[in-house]
Amino acid sequence: MSCILSCDLGFGPKKSVKKTVREVYDMTIRELKVWAKLDCDHFTQYRSSWLEAEHKDKELVLKVYIEMDLCWFTLEDAIRKMRQHFERPVNQFLPTLGYYMASELLIEILEGIHYLHSLIPPIIHRDVKPKNILIKGSPYGRFIKLADFGLATEHLKESMSHTQASGTDKYMPPEVRLSRYYGTKADMYSIGVTVNELFNFALH
């Protein structure tokens, strides 16, 4: 089963955007190129994509359509549901069953990131967070599907370091936030923050 996502790339007299249409288009194409390489059960499967244009309110709107696996909810949703189900506020220990469930999800997250970092060249996701980790909810195969490769980049050689501050601030390691050199380990910091939420701890 699959679903289709759409992304508007609009411009015109009424449009005020932080990025040009070309910049957004290039970023989308870059994401699709990375995504299309990941033919593996750890990730939402890219199926196809196409571009359509239409005029709306004196504005040209370009829409990028992406067909992908249908996933029912995110890890962010799952964390919230676990807290409700086990009646645990933030920073209160989960029961044994809750820890077992969280551990199983964590194993699949780590396997997906390990796969990215083991590619030649390795890929740094750069935006690992509960909202970008999807759950397919199927009794077959894996539950966890890593998604959203808009900020992903190839780590072309071991000596290569990146300086661009990319990602979501809360999950961003200090070296990335400060635009210092970083590599694949940046994803591990993001996973660490995600683990704190998954196991119901609060960072202070």
From TrEMBL:
Family annotation (InterPro entries): CC_SR_Kinase, Kinase-like_dom_sf, Prot_kinase_dom, Ser/Thr_kinase_AS
A matching Pfam family: Pkinase
Transferase is among the record's keywords: yes
SMART domains: S_TKc
Domain of life, source organism: Eukaryota
Coiled coil: none
Entry-linked PROSITE patterns: PROTEIN_KINASE_DOM (PS50011), PROTEIN_KINASE_ST (PS00108)
SUPFAM superfamilies, per the entry: Protein kinase-like (PK-like)
Ranges where the Protein kinase domain occurs: 1-204
MF terms (GO), sorted A to Z: ATP binding; eukaryotic translation initiation factor 2alpha kinase activity
Any GO CC annotation of this UniProt entry: cytoplasm
Key words of the record: ATP-binding, Kinase, Nucleotide-binding, Transferase
Membership in a protein family: Belongs to the protein kinase superfamily. Ser/Thr protein kinase family. GCN2 subfamily.
Protein name: Protein kinase domain-containing protein
Species annotation: Oppiella nova
